[in-house]
Amino acid sequence: MKKGKMIILSGPSGSGKTTISHCLLSKFTELKFSVSCTTRSIRNNEIHGKDYYFLSVNSFVSKIKKHQFAEWEEVYPKLFYGTLKDEIFKIWKSNKHILVDIDVKGGINLKQQYPNNSLSIFIMVNSIKILKKRLFTRSFFEKNNKTNINVRLNKARKENSYAKLFDFILFNIDLYQTKKEAIHIVSNFIHGK
Ligand code: 5GP
User: Is pLDDT at 166 greater than 60 in this prediction?
Assistant: First the structure.
């Protein structure tokens, strides 16, 4: 069995992580998305077990106590997100590489746990104004409220300062270009160049 690798995609909410993650997953059949657990409520277009495992707070806490998470964070106040150890090993066992879409602290944490077989990429939006516009557009479709957007913007300001701890920083100015760069970096990493 070839040694499993891990691609860590991090960056502020609205930076384009999810779009880039979908692009990478469709480009590389050897990559598999790591489905995280979350206690936030399910959105209209989401599917349990595909986008997230949607758990109650009690069930999430019970998994923390049983040490079932490789990492977990209270990403937003009272909203927990975590990567299950089982999810990671299941993917590696199936001979695939893992792609995680994760908040910045979680990304740094996983990189520390798997320093030799992981590649961490920070998706950066260098204008808070652009980020705000993206989050507003998204909230229009997803019924987020304004408070939620402000919480995400404040977090984004802090998160940008951790970008230097990642292997690569991708400035998402032009989405086409960003996808192209992401494909190039990931291809080199998984094909061992
Ligand atoms: P959303 O609620 O928009 O799906 O995700 C909010 C944030 O949580 C995003 O930055 C996403 O990358 C992050 N996230 C998703 N899964 C995990 C996880 O397993 N662990 C951590 N630490 N963050 C996660």
Answer: yes
What is the full DSSP assignment across the chain?
-PPP-EEEEE--TTSSHHHHHHHHHHH-TTEEE-PEEE-SPPPTT--BTTTEEE--HHHHHHHHHTT-EEEEEEEETTEEEEEEHHHHHHHHHTT-EEEEE--HHHHHHHHHHSTTTEEEEEEE-S-HHHHHHHHHHHHHHHT--HHHHHHHHHHHHHHHTTGGGSSEEEE-SSHHHHHHHHHHHHHHHHTT-
Residue of the CA atom closest to atom 15 of ligand 1: 102
Ligand 1 center to 55 CA (angstroms): 14
Q: What distance in angstroms lies between residue 117's CA and the mean position of ligand 1's atoms?
A: 21
Domains of the chain: 6-191 (3.40.50.300)
Average pLDDT over residues 160-189: 95
Residue nearest to atom 5 of ligand 1 (CA): 13
Cα 75 to averaged position of ligand 1 atoms, centre (Å): 7
Pocket test for ligand 1, best of 36, 99, 100, 108 (most atoms within 8 A of CB): 36
Q: Give yes or no for residue 90 having a pLDDT over 90.
A: yes
